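Hello,

Our lab assistant flagged a job as stuck in the queue for most of the afternoon. It eventually completed. Since we weren't sure the result was trustworthy after the delay, we are filing this so someone can double-check. Below is the sequence as submitted and the structure that was eventually returned. Let us know if re-running is recommended.
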Amino acid sequence: MPELPEVEITKRTLSKQILFKKIKDVTIINPKLRYNLEKKKLKLLKNKIINKIKRRSKYILIFFDDEFVMLIHLGMTGRFYFSKTNKKKIDTSFYNKNKIIHNHDHLKILFNGFDLIYNDIRKFGFIKILNQNELNKSKYLIKLGCEPLSNQLNFKYLKLKLSKKKSSVKNLLMNQKIISGLGNIYVNEVLHLSKIKPSKPGNDLKADHIKTLIKSIKKILKNAIKAGGSTINNYYNSEGKMGSYQANFKVYNMEGKICPRTGCDGKIQREFHSGRSIFFCFKCQS
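-- returned structure --
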């Protein structure tokens, strides 16, 4: 599933192509996603101009020149690609294949000279049309925690959220009600950088642990975004460039390898909890 860096890259590559553009028409190819696409609402976007594109957690928000906003979640395999008049494909996706499987196209948004197409193999993504005045009350957004790259993620906030919790620090960091946008890949990397064992209870974290976590979260996410995200299944951005942050992974998918931390000769271990893989160094993470 795409995490914050990959959703941020998708948002940015969409912005390069469709910001301030007018929608000529909308065509539903296959309505079946997590929630069926609503033809009546999507047709309201005809002749609307896109004036802002934002990201909130793992959601993309496309604002129009009226009361409408498109709320998008990519699910596990959701992706956008552009089909231009010269048939050149420009991909904005996290999960990208060398060959697009058009049987999994769901929505086509027509612009002047090109189309924007939403493709989703596993159909866990969704697209909703909302009124801007109901956005803050949306069930998808209302309970989200702070953005990890914002000033809201500070010592006072994180101490309050973690210090009385018995759950593992890994599960707490992945709780979208506490910090929005973090997922399994980057939490594993954050905890390794912080020298904290994933299973450590939140109420065992000292002040120095919390301060280190904040620095590590911001550093990992900023570097991942700078690297264009992490390539999974041949990800390319809209300029055809691969994300490269996977080359910086220290523990994720590194089971059995020697810890890359200077001076540490521990091995990376893999455990499974709640259906997810946990990767950590048994020696330097405590």
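-- support follow-up --
The delay was a queue issue, not a problem with the job. The result is valid. Confidence is low (pLDDT under 50) at residues 233-243. Residues 155-281 form a domain with the Helicase, Ruva Protein; domain 3 fold (CATH 1.10.8.50).
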